[in-house]
# Entry
Amino acid sequence: MKKYIAVLPGDGVGPEVIKQAIKVLDKIAQKFYHTFEYEYGLIGACAIEKSGNPLPKDTIDLCRNSDAILFGCIGDPKYDNDPKLKIRPEQGLLKLRKSLGLYANLRPVKVYNCLFDISPLKKNTIENIDFVVVRELIGGIYFGKPRLRKNYGKTAIDTSIYTKEQITKVSEFAFGLASKRNKKITSIDKANVLETSRLWRETVCEVAEKYPDVILSHMFVDNASMQLIKNPSQFDVILTENLFGDILSDEASVITGSIGLIPSASIGEKISLYEPIHGAFNKAAGKNLANPIATILSGALMLRMSFNMNKEAKLIEQALIKVLEGEYRTKDISTNKTSSYKIIGTEEFGDLTTETISD
Ligand code: IPM
Ligand code: MG
# Structure
């Protein structure tokens, strides 16, 4: 199969981790006689520096003309520390999500047996963890208007808006997914306080009627943030709105031991985007320190979800586990407790994974 992949490495450690995913994808292409053609585009702080625009038109066009998008990460502390700046790297990603209609963001959370030791939670709490967060990605407070300052800058307004249509769309995606998994959805909202959450709950219940084999339950977001730590194995599919999903998925990643382990898929009508959930980790940029696992796994998700290449995706996932079982670790997933690990860099981790996918 021939596929065109738009590659957006972004900022910080983005280019390094993307490079490892591409190595692995090339190996898969070679092994299975596929052709992957990559075209690179700018987004985020590097795009602002070059063109003043965090999402240049060329980049959107490139994405629109591709079969899938592989994304690194964006951000730069120089923008974080200056709240007055009008142009920011993150706007690039938000605009891309909106322009391509990437309505559902899927974040799988799994704890590997060989990584039990790095979770901050007790072994018996994390033994059976295998859930996905489905986060609505183009609605809610991230995009609602008005968004402004008034009263001479002393009052700030953000607006959370959801339509029934938006909620229905992401819910149908989540129910479809749950029916192929353990048939359990926990919808997370704040319906005891927010009107958008009451519409959310009402709509999710309507969608649920079409999926009688899936068990739906509801949870308030404050309780959910506690349940994720207390009893995370109760979850199969978590369905939630944009802001809650952003926060809960970072929290969920901690259970696995490192945010460097979690990939994601942002699903659109025609094109989908795949990215690690971690940020740009600018301090580590160029130091061969970053964990490439989340990006390599994002590549595997791309093969599975956009190209229907299940065998290929599985092989990547198995290769990663083999490397970890060989006691090779990047720094973020090593503990000081034991010295039996071989701590290796980003590049070496990518090489080992590629080599493990034998011809
Ligand atoms: C994420 C990130 C983004 C978000 C930022 C970079 C805009 O935190 O993908 O989770 O808030 O959605
Ligand atoms: Mg986030």
